[in-house]
Amino acid sequence: MPGTNRLSDCTICGIITFYEPPLSCIDNIETYLCYIDRLYIVDNTPSPRNQIFPELLRKYPNIELLSFGHNIGMAAALNLGIKKGLENSYSWLLTMDQDSYFEADQAKRYFESLSVIDYSRVAILSPAHGNRATDSVACVYEKKDEVMTSGNLLNLSLSRKTGAFNEALFIDSVDHDYCLRANLLGLDVLQAVNCYICHTVGQEYSGAFLFGLKRKTFHIHSPKRMYFIVRNGLYISKTYRQAFPDYTKYLQKHIQARISKCIRYSDQRWVYIRFVLQALFDYVFNRYGNRVGI
Length: 294
Fold this sequence. Notes:
There is one protein chain. By secondary structure, this protein is an alpha/beta fold. It has 2 domains: 12-197, Spore Coat Polysaccharide Biosynthesis Protein SpsA, Chain A, CATH 3.90.550.60; 203-284, no CATH class. 37% of the residues lie in helices and 21% in strands. It is built from 9 helices and 10 strands. It has helices at 24-30, 53-59, 74-87, 104-112, 156-162, 174-184, 223-240, 245-265, 269-284; strands at residues 12-18, 38-43, 63-67, 92-97, 122-129, 141-143, 152-155, 188-197, 203-209, 214-220. It has an 8-stranded mixed β-sheet with strand order 3-2-1-4-7-5-8-6, with helices on both faces. The longest helix has 21 residues, at 245-265. It is globular, with a radius of gyration of 19 Å.
């Protein structure tokens, strides 16, 4: 039953954002639903068909659907989760992507680790991403400048201090912006080194360069997602370069490498070029929000 495995002194709600969700989302949700009291689903599908919602809502009474008939963005969805969590006096907010799930032993170790966390200092707790070997029963954490959204446990009491997610960014880098602000306030962002969530970043893609002489397989985002990655990455670099110089240098190199792969190896290279150029122009002229109709 939902909530049967949660810690008795720790109340947890969750927020997950759907976008054209496949049926596999039900299996993913079931890997962590027993650890939380309530799950809010924000359906960001522009023309929702809701094939999976009747079964989910019938099977799990602690799931609540929030659908607006259009894409409100990741930041707005996360802010809805914070709002709902605070209104209902929850302690932590689990933030999930639709393609992410926990293996059974990992979920148990991760949620049980809340019993040893300093609630007054930890703004965000995060699992590692990707299946990896573990060598300890207890989760071990280290401080990070930023972590990805999926699998995070966000401290709702400290969210009042950190402030809301930046809805102008819409999607991509909204998690990094929140983490960096938390760090600036002297709060901790912790990520497990030996406890993981299964999560895929982008779609696997195999492309060719130099008339097929060079081939590379890598994970790729759509051209429209690359728009947000570039524009918002530039915003993060400018906003935090003095406070986090090493991180922003790494971020710039990382974005440049992603752009290079898309332009060299994708069969949509001219589409990528167009959206990257639009991202640059919109950043220069301070244009934010959902400007590409994603």
